[in-house]
Amino acid sequence: MKTRDLAYIALFAAVVAVLGVLPPITVAVVPVPITAQTLGVMLAGSVLGARRGGLALLLFLAVVAIGMPVLSGGRGGLSVFTGPAAGYLYSWPIGAFVVGLLTQLFWRRLNLGWAFLANVVGGILVIYAIGIPFTSLYADVPLWASFTGSFVFLPGDGVKALIAALVAVGVRRAYPVIELPARQPAHR
Amino acid sequence: MTLLALYSPRPGALHRTPAGWKLAALAGLSVLLFAVPELPVAATALAVVVLLALAGARLTARQVLAQVRPVWLWLAGLLAFHLVVTDLATGALAVLRLATLVLAAAVVTATSRVAELVAVIEWLLAPLRLVGVRPGRIGLAIAMTLRFIPLVAERAGRIREAQAARGATRPLFLLLVPLLVQVLQLAHTTAEALDARGADDEAPPRPFWRRS
Amino acid sequence: MARPWRRAADRPAQDDAVLPRTAVELVGVTHSYGDRTVLRDVSVVLAEHRVGVIGSNGSGKSTFARLLNGLVLPTAGRVLVDGLDTAEHLRAVRRRVGFVFQDPDAQIVHPTVAEDVAFGLHNQRVPAAEREQRVAEVLARYGLAGHADHPAHLLSGGQKQLLAIAGVLVMRPARVVFDEPTTLLDLANRRRVARVVEELEQDVLVVTHDLDLLAGFDRVLVVEDGRVVADGAPGETVGWYVARMS
Question: Considering only CB atoms, which chain A residues are within 8 Å of B195?
C-alpha cells in the first residue's frame, strides 16, 4: 500500500474521531447516545471506497483499543469492545466497506439518489444487521426486543445517510479520491 | 484538543505483566463466561476481576466505579427487562457477565502502555505478511491518526470562521465538503513528506502466491 | 502502475554505492497530471551550491522541486541526481536529496519532537544509540533541545518549520530542496530560516516567492507556464522577473 493511501486511511480515522466530539444526543428510552460517528462510517466509504474506507474504520477501532478516548463521550479502551453495544462497533468497518463498494459500483452515475442508497444499505442496514443480533445474544434478550430498541435511531440515521450522500456527490466533483490517477496533483 | 490515553500510571503488578498475556486472558475470560452460563461462575469472575483491579492494577474504588458508569443504565435496563420477561437468575447472569467483561477490559487498558498495545496489534497482524501487508505500518498509521485529529478539528474551525465572516449562516454539514477536500490535500502532502523521509523504503513482503 | 521499490530492490548494490556529489540534471523533462501539462521539455543542469527557483503560482515550480527527489516522476524525459535516474534509483535518490515542505503541519506526524526527528533514521535502520545522538545534535543545533519530549503540535509556527528542517537534516542528505519554506512564517522566522539555508554546507535548491531569500544565491531560474524562461545570477534574473511582473 502506498503511503498516500495510508494517509487517507489515517485521515478518515481522525475524521470519525472528530465527529465523536460533536455533542451526542441521548434519547431517554435507550441508554445509547446518538452520535455523529456513524456519519464518519458513511463518509469514509463514500469518499475512500471499499478497501480504504473499511481499513479507516479498522484503524479507528485500533486507536480506540489502545486506550485513546476517541469514541463519543470520551469513551475508549478495550471495555467498549466487551460492552453491550460492541456489535455496532464491530460492524463499522464492514459498513464502511459496503458503502464504499456500492459507491464504486454506482460511480459513473453517482447522484444524490444512488449515493443515498449506498449509505442506507452500508451505513444503516449492515450496521443494524450486525449490531442488533449481537446485543441480543450478548445481553440474552430476544431479537425483537433488541430490534425495537434500535428503532429510535432510525430517523437520525436517515438524516446522516442523506448528509453523507450530499457530501459524497460534492467531494466526487472536487476531489475524486476513488478514481485518482496514479499521480494526482495535490499541489500546483 | 489533546488526547490522553486511558492508561493509569500508578504502578501495580499488572502493569509489569506483558500486554499480550493480559489480552489473551481477557479473550479467555469472555469465552469462559459465555461457554459456562452459570451464576456462580460469573459471580466468582466478577469478584476476581474487582480484586485484580484494586490490588493488581492498583485502581481506586472510585476509578473502578467510573469504568462501569458508562454502561450502568444499560445494566439497570437489562435487569428490569429480564425481571419482566424471564426471571431474576437469567437477568443477574447477563448483568454480571457484562459488568465483568467491561471492567476486565478496562483493567487491561489501564495497565498497558500504548506502545505495548501497538506491538501486540503488530504481532497479531504478522500473518498478514503472507498477503503482502507490512504490519509495522500500523504504528505509523496510528501516529498519523492522532496527529490528524487536532488538525481536522482546527481546519473545521477555520472554515467555519471564514464562512461566518462572509455572513453565511449555512447549516453545519455544508462545511463538510470544503473541509474534506482541504484535509485530503493535506493528507496527500503528509504522505509525500513521509516518503521524502524514507517511509516507503522497506519493500512490502511478497504475497505467498508470488513467492517461488 | 510503477513500482519503484521493486525496481530499486533489484539493484541494491548500485543503490547504496557512494557516488561523488556532482549535479542534478533534467533531460527533456515533461510532466502532466492527466491532460494538464505543468512542465514542458525542460532541460537544465544544476551544479551550483545554491539555486533558487521563482515563478508565479501554477507555473510548475513546485512540480520542478518534487521531481528532484522522485516525489514526482517525469511523464517524459529523465531526472538524474548525481547520475542516478530518479525513476530507477528512487531509494538512493531520496537518501541523497532531503525535502522541506511549505507547511510543516503536513510534515510532522509523530507525537513528540524527538520522535518526529528520529522518523527518517528509523527508516534508514540507524542503530538506536547513534539515532539518539544524532537527534540530540540536530535539536541542539536548531534551538529545540529543550523541546525534545514536547508534543510537536504545540510548537509555534517558526519552531515547527525548524523541526521540519531538523527532521530532514538529521538524515544527512547531500542536498536539500525547499518548497516555499518561508511562505507561512512571520518576518523574524523568515530571517531565521533564511539563515539556516545560508549556513548549510549541503547544496540547496529553494523554490520561493520570497525574493529576499535569494540574495546570496549562485543561480536563479524563473519558471513560467512550464518552461524555464530566465536563468542566471540572481542580480539579473530576479530584477528581470520583478520588472516583468510590474
Answer: 3
> How many structural domains compose chain B?
2
Torsion, CA B104, CA B106, CA B108, CA B110, rounded to 10 = -140
Range of the domain at C115: 8-245
Count of helix runs (H) and strand runs (E) in chain C: 10, 10
Helix (H) or strand (E) holding C204: strand C203-207
Tens digit of pLDDT at every position of chain A (188 positions): 789 999 999 999 999 998 887 655 555 455 555 678 999 999 999 999 999 999 999 999 998 888 777 887 667 778 788 888 889 999 999 999 999 999 999 998 999 999 999 999 999 999 999 999 998 888 888 888 888 877 778 888 898 999 999 999 999 988 888 876 444 444 43
Are A83 and B74 within 8 A, CB to CB?
Answer: yes
B:C CB pairs within 8 Å:
71
Could you give the CA distance from residue A28 to residue C197 in angstroms, rounded to a whole number?
Answer: 61
Residues near C65 by beta carbon (within 8 Å), at least 6 away in sequence: C53, C99, C177, C178, C179, C205, C207
A188 belongs to a structural domain? no
Q: What residue has cell string 450496521? A: A127
Q: Which domain holds residue B101?
A: 3-112
Q: Round to whole Å and give the CA distance between B35 and B25.
A: 15
Q: Tell whether A185 lies on the interface with C, counting CB pairs under 8 A.
A: yes
Using CB atoms, pick whichever of C33, C57, C63 lies closest to residue A184.
Answer: C33
Chain B neighbors (3+ CB pairs < 8 Å) = A, C
Assembly ipTM: 0.88
CATH number of the domain that residue C208 is part of: 3.40.50.300
H-helix or E-strand containing C115?
Answer: helix C113-123
pTM (2 decimals)? 0.81
Q: Is residue C140 part of a domain?
A: yes
Query: Which residues are CB-neighbours of C172 under 8 A, at least 6 positions away?
Result: none
